[in-house]
Sequence to fold (88 residues):
Amino acid sequence: MDNVNKRAPWYYIAETMRTCWSCRARTPVIGLVMPPGHESLEVVGYEPDERYVWMTMGAPSFVHYVTHLPASVVNTIEASAWPLSRTS
Fold:
């Protein structure tokens, strides 16, 4: 998949409730947390010699600026019922 820039054999789903800034209703908020040891696609070098390499990250990380999720991840999120769930 061309648009993948994070990967791991499993991840956490973090869930909480927040007040919507627009309508003020309580709204569920979901985040994905990558475990220590996940891989991130990083740019190394400068143009014209820059290249992309997979780097192993030593600390957990929240995923941000999400533009695409695989269907399997969407299905897992939709089925999640716990405040913090670990996938396998």
